[in-house]
Amino acid sequence: MFYINMQITYPIHQKHNIYPSFCSTTRVGLLSDSVDYIYSTQSSVFRTDLDWMKFAKYLGIHFKDAEKVNVVCQACSDGSEPYTLALALIHSLGFEASKKFFPIKARDIDITNISSFAKRGIINLTKEDIEKLKINGINFDKYFSNSTEQIRLVNDTINNEVQTYKVNQNLRQFVDFQNQDLEDDASRLVDNSNTVFLCRNVLPYLGSYDARKVIYNLGKNMKKGSILSLGTYTNSKFLTYSEDYKFIKDCGFEPLADFKQTYIKTDNLSNRNELDWGANILSYRMPF
């Protein structure tokens, strides 16, 4: 039996069926001819690999002259991450100053998750999630309320530490959930130096070719001053080699010192011919 832990409910192409779950649920299955891969999302509010309140303050200063900021949260899973950013922006900048960042465009390839849970405004939260909200000065009862429903997927067993809550309208209004593929989003992105693109904790699960293509397309489409956050990874070798950083840098991104695996777009691009995707895909080592 395999357990593959990941942030989003992204399809992995294997010969047998794959069943998604959430961090707040557990599923036990037997290896069989039809089921041999079980994986779960590890979404949580105020995930600790990024100082969200500090990040929100930085965005407020960085985009102070922008009339509108285009915020995209790809691989949004159950909504924990876009809701976290929305709360951080509101409580760091104040409501009026944060309005130009909304609505956050929350996107995920998993149509079941988006349609069945996220769009309907229900979410599973652990006691730790609730504590992290309080630590960051967030009034939990203002934004969440008890739900008569329970998020369950087939054969899930709910962890006793978890409860399903309704996301109140005063938070839901700031996040727009849609079913959309990360690779398509990256290749079609229209940017005017006013974009914050989060695709955190997902690239290693795409496979080497597709992950590099995402970075390449974002490098091609994002303009100077826009922000890219890739997140950190558990039990992954991605971004541990100098070649990984070189590829990201060659695509025009420089790291932001205060935020792990978060980058700002610059004009410092390598020769475009060297980054031609179709012609030179095999010339790059694939660390993803």
Tell me the layout of helices and strands.
Blueprint: E1 2-5, E2 17-21, E3 25-27, E4 35-40, H1 52-62, E5 70-74, H2 80-93, H3 95-98, E6 104-108, H4 111-118, E7 122-126, H5 127-135, H6 140-143, E8 144-146, E9 156-158, E10 162-167, H7 169-172, E11 175-179, H8 182-188, E12 195-198, H9 208-221, E13 227-229, H10 242-250, E14 253-255, E15 262-265, H11 277-280
Parallel strand pairs: 1-4, 2-4, 5-6, 5-12, 6-11, 12-13
Antiparallel strand pairs: 3-9, 7-10, 8-10, 13-15, 14-15
Structural class: alpha/beta
List the strand order in the largest sheet: 11-6-5-12-13-15-14
Overall mean pLDDT stands at: 79
In percent, how helical is the residue content? 25-40%
Instruction: Describe the global form.
Output: globular
How many alpha or pi helices? 11
The unreliable regions are 1-41, 277-288
Distance between the termini: 24 Å
Query: How many runs of DSSP E, i.e. beta strands?
Result: 15
Q: For the report, how would you describe the main beta sheet?
A: 7 strands, mixed
Properties at a glance:
alpha/beta, 288 residues, seven-stranded mixed beta sheet, 31% helix, disordered C terminus, three-stranded parallel beta sheet
